[in-house]
Amino acid sequence: MNRLSDSPNKVDSNSSVPLSSILFTEQLHRRPARLPDYVKENRALLELTQALADSPQTILQTLADMILEVFNAGSAGISLLTTRDNGKNFFWPAISGKWKPYIGGGTPRDFGPCGDVLDRDMPLLFRHIEQRYTYFKPVSPPVEECLLVPFYVKEKAVGTIWAVAHDNQCKFDAEDERLMCSLGKFASAAFQVVSSLDAINSQLVERTEMETALRGSEEKLQILSSGLEHDMRIQTAALLEQNNEILQQADQLRELSSRLLQTQDDERKRIARELHDSAGQIITVLGINLASVAKRMKRQSASRKSIEASLKLTHQLSGEIRTMSYLLHPPLLDITGLSGAIQWYAVGLEERSGLTVGLEIPEGFGRLPEEMELAIYRIVQECLTNIHRHSGSKSAAIRLERTSQHVSIEISDQGRGISAPKLALIQAQRSGVGVAGMRERVRYLKGTMDIHSGKDGTRVLVTLPIALTPNAAAAPRARTSI
């Protein structure tokens, strides 16, 4: 296994790629942060405490293992400045995960991500570091993004703690930064204790007295570990109770939001029925009466034209009321299901706006639970409305797929995309009512929603879990052009 430290002096430190092109630290506080899991954090601290008591020399490897587990990262490790060459390089004494074969490797101090962290003395988030530091290109698997925080010994930064994501499924946020700094502080204190013990072992002279001193230090360490473990257990119990209260409040808020959406859908359905059954019938009768009057007044030209104009407006109003009724709650959704309702809406939108909609639904897609069909229809309706109003795109594409476990929906366009500030607000879940309503419907059904946007357009991906049903198997895909 080739290691990065084999040829550190061959690094091209004059890379044409600027550091700013791979730094994404500001994303840590723009991304929606997950809730702190204090129980998991304290469990990790307890395991580090136990490792310090049982086998102090393994504390760094235990820390790397803890980071890998807590952060769900692909690789994790620790970098320390070398002492034999006056700190000109970093070496990796502990690695966990997919990069574990590179343990013992390292990077140059004056040209590398670890050196950048020490120069700024702050946590940094990088993406695709191989673009600037080309010596990472042979390393497999490659880096999608990595989070590094300084590692201190006696208040001096002597290395870094890092976590690496090898694919775009793992995105670090502010909670990851806080948690890594917390674990780093504890490991730093533990490392100093280990270093002190090593110094004692390396300087053993007149032997009996030093062994006595060492046993005393170990006994104190055991007492310290026991006391710390006791304090941690008390703190864990208190934090667990607090965490449960927060989760309970979050569940209550989600339940309230879901009820509001259900009430809104029921009211839309009621209004649609009233428009169709009441106002629609009145308009129809009025049209019949006007037509009858127009026939009787054929010889009175001016009156006849006025009546005919009124009759035309009546027919137009009747059509608009019918369309409004269907938009509020399409009857096809209850009669034929999701496929028919989406096809009807796409055809109507194309006629009203000129937007070309491509629709791809597998043959034999089948029916879904009522609340899921309504949620998918509203999501598609909101996305197409946004494309028509804001994207500038002449076309849109909708694709539905179904397996035995989930339904996936993809809505895309080829428009101008969403501006970076607005996209940041959307990703931070501080966007407008439309997107917020979509997220709430997806959250209620325990699904996921991702929004990607750039100069080539915008793509919305929604995945919803479904229960196993007889017709839940995936069917062959059929393309329908609206």
In short:
This protein has 12 helices and 12 strands. It is of the alpha+beta class and 482 residues long.
Please indicate the count of domains. Answer: 2
Average predicted confidence as pLDDT: 79
Distance between the termini: 56 Å
Beta-strand fraction estimate: 15-25%
- The best one-word shape is elongated
Low-confidence stretches: 5-11, 468-482
CATH topology type of the largest domain:
Beta-Lactamase
Continuous helix count: 12
| Helix content, binned percent | 40-55%
CATH class of the largest domain: Alpha Beta
Provide a descriptive summary of the structure in words.
- The protein has 482 residues and is an alpha+beta fold.
- It folds into two domains: 4-203, Beta-Lactamase; 336-481, Histidine kinase-like ATPase, C-terminal domain (Heat Shock Protein 90, 2-Layer Sandwich).
- 52% of the residues lie in helices and 17% in strands.
- The strands form two sheets. The protein has a six-stranded antiparallel beta sheet, sandwiched between helices. A six-stranded mixed beta sheet has the order 10-11-9-8-7-12.
- Strand 8 and strand 9 (406-413) form a beta hairpin.
- The chain starts with 26 loop residues before the first helix and ends with a strand.
Give a topology summary.
Elements: H1 27-30, H2 38-54, H3 59-71, E1 75-81, E2 89-97, E3 106-108, H4 113-120, E4 124-127, E5 145-153, E6 156-165, H5 174-202, H6 208-296, H7 301-328, H8 331-335, H9 338-353, E7 356-360, H10 370-391, E8 395-402, E9 406-413, H11 420-427, H12 433-444, E10 448-454, E11 457-465, E12 479-481
Parallel strand pairs: 7-8
Antiparallel strand pairs: 1-2, 1-6, 2-3, 4-5, 5-6, 7-12, 8-9, 9-11, 10-11
Helix pairs in contact: 2-3, 2-5, 2-6, 3-5, 6-7, 6-12, 9-10, 10-12
